[in-house]
Design brief:
Blueprint (H helix, E strand, L loop, with lengths): L8 H4 L5 H10 L5 H4 L4 E6 L11 H14 L3 E6 L13 H17 L4 E6 L4 H12 L3 E5 L7 E2 L2 E2 L4 H11 L5 H11 L11 H12 L14 H20 L3 H4 L2 H14 L4 H12 L6 H10 L14 H6 L2 H9 L15 H6 L23 E5 L2 E7 L10 E9 L2 H7 L12 E4 L20 H4 L7 E4 L11 E3 L19 E5 L4 E4 L3 H10 L10 H9 L17 H5 L9
Parallel strand pairs: 1-2, 1-3, 3-4, 9-10, 10-11, 11-12
Antiparallel strand pairs: 5-6, 7-8, 8-12, 9-13, 13-14
Helix pairs in contact: 4-10, 5-6, 6-13, 7-8, 9-12, 9-13, 12-14
């Protein structure tokens, strides 16, 4: 391959003291000058961490990428980044998504890199990497860790997250013994990899593939499958080609590509978290993506994927059925087929070369799980800027519902009272959690799937309408309205609800209404006081002061380019360090 105008040459081909100094850094790795001279330097951004079991396989993936880079005539340089693991990081990895995005962007800008391969997997790592790569706008390709294999309990496969919430309710209701609960724990995470359901990790991997930032057919390969390493090697080869051809994220992440991703999101019954992430990624490139786009395209797109939590299969079944390519074949009449894939070919070319194998896991349109996609965006006086509902996991009879509010002022209040026998709750109640949003915590944690009160569980109640300014795990289910915007902590209407207020949900009309007269609401608003900040210093304070609301992607206001000039600005590389 022939490479013109390599960015890294500004570091390594200087004639003054900077060239020898910088070349000495690479030669300290035991490399000869001939090995790296005149070749593209490819960064491998690895989010491996022993604090994140989802990413334990990424060391081997990085080695496979290096093979591909070297074989294609490039020079691989691996570097580590923050690793955002859902289980251990508190209060939420969402708090640190923007920090990781900043780290990726600034690493790419500051280092002598011509392109980058992004290694991630767990929920917030993939969007953080795409946000940072979009802003840096160097050639980039992404590889996910892949879903873990399923453990078994009581002869049943355990779906990560989804099974946990199901069995937790049974445990709380006394239907599962302590011994069984421990056995479920052992089966829950039997190895490395992301959740094996269509949670946020699998959803965002599918979004990256649909957007064209990942090799076609790669997002669903299990973590322990040799094909994942082969895909990593091919990604290493591909990034060298992308540097040669100067293919950058701005060329791939177009409006048409995002429309493809939104249709795929609807068809897979994707996590609601992806809505926030896709908006944030799009806004980094000044692509005007809104909640209305999600709702409109979801209403036109059938729910085709029979994978938990919307269905009953797992990610390995999806991969065995042909993965995202099979599903996109079913959608191709609605897709922008001229968009690039991660391989450089168009979706039209990729889909034309595949045999349709839709069946029980990936349904055809005639046998869709739902005629329209698994998402609804609602507005009303309780959520002026919108809130979202995952239709594929909601209870149909609750989609038009009127009930009295039971209000929790924050997460701690909810935990303290949810199982209290005196809680004034019935099967018709609407549970409301507030001050659990981006500013209120801060960090917008996954607290929105409010548990069913124990006394209702004992009566056999399995779902209630629940509303919050928080998020929920992509593996969760139920009639749960999330991301209410603006949130309570900044004075949104959720802050004004009191116990006993009537709340009306009308999903077909896309309405969520607090049935309280304006005079009363005005009185409550006048008495409302903004909560005191929970953090007085450091990154959480920065986050609370600059984070945007969910309908705007929860990015930082200062990271969104406000003009084409800001979008294209790259600071000059200057002399001495």
């Amino acid at each position: 391959m022939t490479f013109q105008h390599l960015r890294s040459a500004e570091w390594f081909e200087g004639r003054d003291e900077l060239g020898p100094q910088n070349r000495a850094v690479l030669r300290s790795l035991g490399w000869t000058r001939e090995f790296f001279t005149g070749k593209p330097v490819i960064g491998i951004a690895n989010s491996y961490s022993e604090l994140n079991n989802c990413h334990l396989s990424l060391r081997a993936v990085a080695e496979a990428v290096k093979r591909g880079v070297i074989a294609a005539g490039g020079v691989p340089l691996e570097f580590n980044t923050i690793s955002l693991g859902e289980e251990l990081m508190k209060p939420s990895t969402m708090l640190y998504r923007n920090l990781m995005a900043m780290e990726i962007e600034e690493s790419l800008r500051a280092q002598p890199l011509d392109g980058v391969v992004l290694l991630g997997g767990c929920d917030k790592t993939l969007p953080a990497q795409l946000m940072g790569a979009a802003s840096a706008n160097l050639p980039a390709i992404q590889i996910n860790a892949g879903p873990k294999h399923a453990g078994r309990w009581n002869c049943e496969e355990i779906g990560s997250g989804t099974a946990l919430w199901k069995y937790l309710d049974e445990y709380r209701a006394g239907k599962i013994s302590d011994e069984d609960w421990q056995a479920i724990e052992l089966a829950y995470a039997p190895g490395a990899g992301t959740c094996n359901t269509m949670g946020t990790a699998s959803t965002m991997a599918a979004m990256s593939e649909a957007l064209g930032m990942m090799l076609p057919g790669s997002s669903t390969i299990p973590a322990n499958d040799a094909r994942r390493l082969a895909s990593a090697e091919m990604s290493g080869r591909r990034i060298v080609e992308m540097v040669r051809d100067e293919v950058r994220p701005a060329h791939i992440l177009t409006r048409a590509a995002f429309e493809n991703a939104l249709r795929v999101h609807a068809a897979i019954g994707g996590s609601t978290n992806a809505i926030i992430h896709l908006i944030a990624i799009a806004r980094r490139l000044r692509v005007n993506l809104t909640l209305d786009d999600f709702d409109a395209l979801a209403q036109e797109t059938p729910l085709l994927l029979n994978v938990q939590p919307s269905g009953d299969k797992l990610m390995a079944d999806f991969d065995a059925a042909g993965g995202l390519i099979t599903l996109m074949r079913e959608l191709q009449g609605q897709l922008n087929l001229d968009c690039q894939t991660g391989s450089g070919k168009t979706w039209g070319t990729v889909l034309a070369g595949r045999i349709q194998v839709a069946g029980e896991v990936v349904r055809d349109r005639a046998h869709a799980l739902q005629p329209s996609g698994g998402l609804a965006v609602l507005r009303g006086n309780l959520a002026p800027n919108g809130c979202v509902l995952r239709l594929g996991t909601a209870t149909p009879k609750l989609l038009q519902h009127r009930g009295r509010a039971v209000v929790f002022d924050d997460y701690q209040d909810m935990l303290a009272r949810i199982d209290d026998d005196e809680l004034p709750v019935t099967s018709d109640s609407v549970l409301v959690l507030r001050n659990a949003g981006a500013v209120g915590v801060p960090g917008l944690p996954e607290w929105g799937s409010i548990p069913i009160p124990k006394k209702l569980l004992l009566q056999g109640v399995q779902d209630l309408v629940r509303i919050s300014d928080s998020r929920m795990s992509g593996t969760s289910y139920g009639t749960v309205l999330l991301h209410v915007s603006p949130e309570a902590a900044v004075g949104g209407p959720l802050a004004l609800v009191v116990d006993g207020d009537w709340v009306e949900l009308d999903v077909p009309a896309r309405k969520i209404t607090l049935d309280v007269d304006e005079h009363t609401l005005a009185q409550r608003r006048a008495a409302w006081q903004r909560p005191a900040p929970k953090h007085l210093r450091g990154y959480p304070r920065l986050y609370a002061e600059h984070v945007l609301q969910p309908d705007q992607g929860c990015d930082f206001d200062f990271l969104q380019p406000d003009s084409e000039a800001a979008l294209r600005f790259v600071p000059p590389i200057v002399g001495r360090s």
